[in-house]
Amino acid sequence: MSGAAQDKYMEITNMRLYENGSLSSQDYVSAAGQAGVHALKRHAELVVKYGGEKNLAREQTLQGDRFPDKPRSMFSVTTDINRARYFARGGAVFSARVNKNKLIETPVKSSTEQEYFIRAQIQMERIE
Fold first, then answer.
1. Is-contact 76 84, C-beta < 8 A?
2. What distance in Å separates the CA atoms of residue 78 and residue 95, rounded to the nearest whole number?
3. How many angstroms separate the CA atoms of 30 and 23, rounded?
4. pTM higher than 0.85 for the full model?
5. Distance between CA atoms of residues 29 and 76, nearest Å
6. Is residue 48 a contact partner of residue 30, using CB atoms and an 8 Å limit?
7. Which of 2, 6, 19, 84 has its CA 20 to 30 A from that of 13?
8. How far apart are CA 36 and CA 112, in angstroms?
9. What's the first-to-final CA gap in the chain, in angstroms?
10. What would the pLDDT profile of 33-65 be if each residue is shown by its tens digit?
């Protein structure tokens, strides 16, 4: 999930937990769907602000953790399993098969990470 999707997901699940004392599996699924819609709206805002998706991807790549417009509407993925392990820093590594038309290639030629961006969220499987 992108930062925007994560923030909304946590907001919704925490609110429902507070109101009901527990969450059903349907609550989690519903929250994930609402988070995805929220993240796509956030993405549209950032695309307008940066003058296009490539410009947004460029700035997110160049700024890294210092990207000023949080929450982010995209998250980065790589095709290199060793690079994924490096960025996981001993944590979980996830994998997914994604149609190429869903990926936004990093527009920074100096990047050696085989990095792509995905809008909002996508279902992934934990592999490590």
1. no
2. 10
3. 11
4. no
5. 23
6. no
7. 84
8. 29
9. 18
10. 999 999 999 999 999 999 999 999 999 888 888
Query: How many residues belong to the chain?
Result: 128
Cα distances (Å, whole numbers) of residue 29 to 32, 42, 66, 72, 78:
5, 20, 31, 22, 26
**Interatomic CA distance for residues 73 and 56, integer angstroms:** 10
Cα–Cα distance measured from residue 60 to residue 83, given in angstroms and rounded to the nearest whole number? 18
What's phi and psi for 94, nearest 5 deg? -115, 155
What letter represents residue 27's amino acid? Answer: D
In which band, very low, low, confident or very high, does the pLDDT at 113 lie, cut at 50, 70 and 90? Answer: low
Q: What number of other Cβ atoms are within 10 A of residue 20's Cβ? A: 10
Contact status, residue 39 vs residue 8, Cβ threshold 8 Å: yes
Q: Give the DSSP H or E segment for 107.
A: none
In angstroms, what CA-CA distances link 8 with 1, 29, 36, 105, 106?
A: 10, 13, 9, 26, 26
Helix or strand (DSSP H, E) at 97: none
